[in-house]
Amino acid sequence: MTIENINKNNNTRNDYGKVVVLMGGWSAEREVSLNGGSAVVDALQKQDIDCVALDIKKSEVFSQISNCEYDIAFNMLHGRGGEDGIIQALLELKSKPYTGSDVSASAITMDKVKTKQLLEGVGLPTPSFAVITEESDLEYIASSLGLPLVVKPALEGSSFGMSIVEEVSEFYDAYVLASDFCSSVMAEAFIEGIEYTATILGDDVLPIIRLETPRKFYDYVAKYEATDTHYFCPAGLDNNEEEQLKNLALSAFKACGAIGWGRVDLFIDQDNKPWIIEINTVPGMTDHSLVPMSAAQAGINFETLVLMILDEALKKEKYAEVVNENQSN
């Protein structure tokens, strides 16, 4: 087998074997995961792919993975336990392919502080930030980063525990809210501008989406419940601007070691400068989610998208086989 043959992606229904869709979990994003996981199961069943849903529980996760018979795992677990390297480590022990990034990339991208440190280290633009503790001088941090600023848990997704601080007097309450979700809390410079998101699928970046919400920011309600959140795809960028933003998103994704599929959230500020905000290695797949929306603009329906994500997992396994074969020769 050669690298060229791997890239052809001529997988058939039989190549997938039995697919287990991991969903639920124990993070604050459990309901989002269940919704997205159910959508993936429905898509597989519509294509007569043998699949089973597995609702992951923290107290049973080791035995659930150990005792499950499958050929490939589709990971739809969000947040801690599912997107931070823990489930990936258990799946590695099974020596079976799974969707998304490996242990190290998952652990890095789940931790917003570590992600920003890495991005800064390789010279990619991300807003200034500070780690906050109970002993932090909040007035000094506010002065350094400027107001308004963003306060959020370092290890949560879907904007849980996130606040916009406009006055120093609001800072401590925002810290307390974020610390209810995670002991690691960060403050980040607020970027005044337009929010975009880029879907990564393999080595490709799908059409950019522009987001608009009348709320203070793109929070949980705006993402999953509101009817007045607006999405624009095409995003209204000219071809050069879109390509530059795509290249930046892919550079950030690869810098963190992420592979397979994911989403990179960005802003373009009032001076037309782009900023990387977050990297998601297990994006949502609900009816409100951005990845299926971007795929649809590229002419990829939901059922095909699910298979393409599985194809990336199989490709990852085949790459590993080629590397091991070359090393043994």
Automatic annotation (TrEMBL):
* Record carries keyword Amino-acid biosynthesis: no
According to the entry, every stretch annotated as the ATP-grasp domain falls at 116-311
> What compartments host this protein?
Cytoplasm
- Show which residues constitute the signal peptide: none
Query: Which GO terms fall under biological process for this protein?
Result: cell wall organization; peptidoglycan biosynthetic process; regulation of cell shape
Give the record's keywords alphabetically. ATP-binding, Cell shape, Cell wall biogenesis/degradation, Cytoplasm, Ligase, Magnesium, Manganese, Metal-binding, Nucleotide-binding, Peptidoglycan synthesis
Cite the EC number.
6.3.2.4
Q: Main subcellular localization, coarse class?
A: cytoplasm
List GO terms (cellular component aspect): cytoplasm
Q: What class of enzyme is it?
A: ligase
Q: Which GO terms describe its molecular function?
A: ATP binding; D-alanine-D-alanine ligase activity; metal ion binding
Q: Which family does it belong to?
A: Belongs to the D-alanine--D-alanine ligase family.
Question: What is the recorded name of this protein?
Answer: D-alanine--D-alanine ligase
